[in-house]
């Protein structure tokens, strides 16, 4: 079960997404990911949402600090983690 801090940050991030505030949503999702348990679905989801918001911001010509190596690695780990969770769920 997710903790309150994660849930509040995720709610704020979602609210910002609905308002097309991609930069703020990106940052809030990253912060939410840092509050979620390691290797949890919530952490993976928040990392992927952050990446989505960063991409949407770029599509709308917003200026973002370039993605760091660590952020790229976290995104890859999030994708691998979700794949593992889906595999375990299906088997």
UniProtKB/TrEMBL annotation:
Q: Which InterPro entries match?
A: ANR_neg_reg
Question: What is this protein called in UniProt?
Answer: ANR family transcriptional regulator
């Amino acid at each position: 079960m997710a903790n309150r801090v994660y849930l509040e940050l995720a709610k704020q991030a979602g609210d910002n997404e609905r308002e097309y505030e991609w930069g703020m949503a990106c940052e809030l999702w990253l912060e939410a990911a840092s509050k979620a348990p390691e290797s949890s679905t919530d952490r993976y989801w928040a990392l992927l949402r952050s990446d989505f918001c960063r991409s949407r911001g770029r599509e709308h010509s917003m200026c973002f600090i370039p993605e760091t190596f660590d952020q790229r690695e976290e995104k890859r780990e999030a994708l691998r983690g979700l794949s593992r969770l889906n595999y375990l769920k299906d088997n």
